[in-house]
Amino acid sequence: MPEPRTDERAPELEAFMAELRKLRTRAGEPSFRKMAAKSGAVSHATLHLTVTGKRLQPWETVREFVRACDGDEEEWHARWQGVQLVLAADREPEPAPRWRSKRVLIPLALVLVAAVAAVVVVVILLPGGQDAAGPPHPGDSSKFIADVTIPDDTVVKPGTQFVKVWELQNTGTVEWRKRYLRRTDLPVAPGTCRTPDRIPVNDTAPQGHVQVTVTVSTPPTAPVDCKIFWKMVDEQDRELFPANKPIYFSVLVRS
User: Fold this and answer.
1) What's the domain range around 204?
2) CATH number at residue 126
3) CA 199, 245, 11, 94 torsion-angle sign
4) Which of 9, 36, 107, 190 keeps 20 to 30 A from 43, CA to CA?
């Protein structure tokens, strides 16, 4: 299928799609059908529109494209938000009624300036803005150590359960208390692996190691590829390591 002429898209959207195509190339140029099978949430036609359509696709669709190519979800979400803001700011406003006075137009102009300023801030943060964010607690730090059970791309049966265990290390100077790993793809799409929304992390002293366990139920039908990402949060569901990549498990559900 031929791609639309680039002049039919906004330059920011064209650049975003070009980067997504590069991500797919780095992933080995998988077919859109294979990507859809790995996602289990969107069709190959919808994924194709992500890099060929005339409009910016919803984040849920772009997220599945990024996941299928093993991209960094946080980085791409920030990029998507930046493009969305730019496109929103570039939209042509509706003609103002003739009775509108200059007193009304002035504050509207100020709103537009504020919106453009917000766009500039987001664009400056991309793609490394997420990495600039530090943990809420100074001295807090975390390190992934190992997959204790269920190595990546383990083949599992549909309609079954398994227990995934990760090992983490508290590499900072702050004691971990009342922490959790929260699943990042909430609400969970149908047809994928089911888990609790968040799982507890045992209290861990600085430099200590901790194993975190989650019970996973596979979908009743196959084939499905489940790759589920998690981030550490506190009791208030506040993300504690915004700059860290999420941990994940990846299984292939096959009959």
Assistant:
1) 142-253
2) 1.10.260
3) positive
4) 9
Model pTM score: 0.51
The single residue listed with the structure tokens 């979800």 is: 73
Reading the block at residue 112, the tokens are 């537009």
Do residues 243 and 208 touch, judged by C-beta distance below 8 A? no
Classify 144 as helix, strand or coil. Answer: strand
pLDDT of residue 195: 96
Residue 156: φ, ψ to 5°: -130, 160
Residue 121: the pLDDT is 42
Tokens of 255: 């009959």
DSSP structure class, residue 147: E
At 73, list the tokens: 């979800």
CA 87/CA 14 separation, integer angstroms: 11
Counting every residue written for the chain, the total comes to: 255
pLDDT in tens, 51-61: 998 899 999 99
